[in-house]
Amino acid sequence: MSSAGGNPIRVGLLGLGTVGGGVVEILHRHRRLIAERSGVDLTVVRAAVRSPRKKRTGAATDVPLTTDPAAILDAPDVDVVAELMGGIEPARAHILRALAQGKPVVTANKAVLAAHRTEIFRAAAKARSDVFFEAAVCGGIPIIRTLREGLASDRITELVGILNGTTNYILEAMRAGADYASALKDAQGLGFAEADPTLDVGGHDAADKLAILTHLAFGTVVSPDRIATEGITALTPDVLADAERLGYRVKLLGIARRAEGGLELRVHPTFIPAEHALASVPGAYNAVAVQSDALGTTLYQGAGAGALPTGSSVVADLIEAGRNLRAGLSGRVLATQTAGAPRVMSADKARSAYYVRLLVREQPGVLAAVTRIFAQNKVSLATVLQRERGAEPHPVPVVITTHRAPAGAMGRALRAIGKLEALQAPPHLVPIEELK
Ligand SMILES: NC(=O)c1ccc[n+]([C@@H]2O[C@H](COP(=O)([O-])OP(=O)(O)OC[C@H]3O[C@@H](n4cnc5c(N)ncnc54)[C@H](OP(=O)(O)O)[C@@H]3O)[C@@H](O)[C@H]2O)c1
């Protein structure tokens, strides 16, 4: 089969696992449709894998395999390289080598982009070639193309997202009554969480994605390790139940927002209004809410992982790479920080309202001491709820919400409260975002 535009675009895959398998399955099912619709006929010529004897299923069984990446990177019969192996090295080296050979690269690898985005984008610009990475952020949701193209005319003021499906699944299970450990075990059983879940539950995967989105949405280059990041491991069912009682849901959010003093960037569990669209994002889904000057609020939601959703993003990128090859041009990649891009502000200065949960031994003067510490740090309280008296000597939960205050002041107040002799457990602190 050949497309209206000429010979097929020959794709070489680095990796034929979950995502690679999804890509070949989609091309197997939709190759003709894609060629008719886009004028680009895509064919997979071979895939480099680690273990060629591993059993493959579906359309992947028909793909010729090699263990030699050069058979993809340097092969004259490969027009476009899809890097679907994951990890930093050798993925980074392979991407750079493909670009240096003039081969456009499509990658699903958020880790390599978060750490080496600038180097990779510069290499693409130097080679006048393309690097596409729709699948690297929020799997099947076309958020990268939306930021690059759909919103190209607009000025983005805020981007808030549920960027990690594993943690969303765990939080939903906890809301339904599970504790953290059993929710995590369930997620692992269903294949939503890795055997080592640290990157997901620690918020680092979300921070990687937020760094990439921030570059596209605001032009600001930031390394994920400069993003204030907190995961979900300290959350308890009590905190989620308090959120419900107060009219909120708890979601792990990545937040990038133009604020007075720069760009606010953070990843942390957050109380959001129960009626906000992000509050009802189900299971392992991802979602991103974008505020922009002309368009206002838009919401993008869908499957953030999985063979076919992620594969569909990779194939969309392959189509674009193929089109550009046919036309003899390359897309403009944002190699560096744009002029006038906002600077990342210090995490201590970011302001939000807070929920605080303290477990205290009941004794006279404890509440007065707590409120005094907040006042000393110029944090004003919105509500204070001392929950039902426990039978002595059980500690009593005190639930507090504050008005907006800088993170630095809240941190100082919490450290001082943590030293109170009546405190029976480390306090819980969760920012509250009254999202638009
Ligand atoms: N899974 C998802 O839903 C999802 C969603 C969004 C983004 N991503 C990203 O997509 C990428 C691929 O993920 P995946 O889930 O498809 O991974 P995977 O199932 O583990 O597949 C990785 C593939 O790469 C091959 N491979 C690994 N290291 C290699 C090496 N050094 N040389 C040659 N081949 C090598 C493996 O070979 P063998 O088959 O022989 O082991 C396998 O075919 C990652 O960057 C991931 O973050 C995945």
Taking the alpha carbons of the first and last residues, their distance comes to 49 Å
> What is the general shape?
elongated
Structural class: alpha/beta
Oligomeric category: single chain
Structural summary, described in words:
By secondary structure, the protein is α/β, with parallel strands linked by helices. The chain has 13 helices and 17 strands. The strands form three sheets. The chain has a six-stranded parallel beta sheet with strand order 3-2-1-4-5-6, sandwiched between helices. It has a six-stranded mixed beta sheet with strand order 8-10-9-7-11-12. Strand 5, helix 4 and strand 6 (131-132) form a beta-alpha-beta unit. The longest helix is centred in the first third of the chain and has 21 residues, at 18-38. The radius of gyration is 24 Å and the shape is elongated. The mean pLDDT is 94. It binds NADP nicotinamide-adenine-dinucleotide phosphate (NAP). NADP nicotinamide-adenine-dinucleotide phosphate (NAP) binds next to helix 1.
Summarize the structure in short.
With 436 residues, this protein is α/β, with parallel strands linked by helices. It is built from 13 helices and 17 strands.
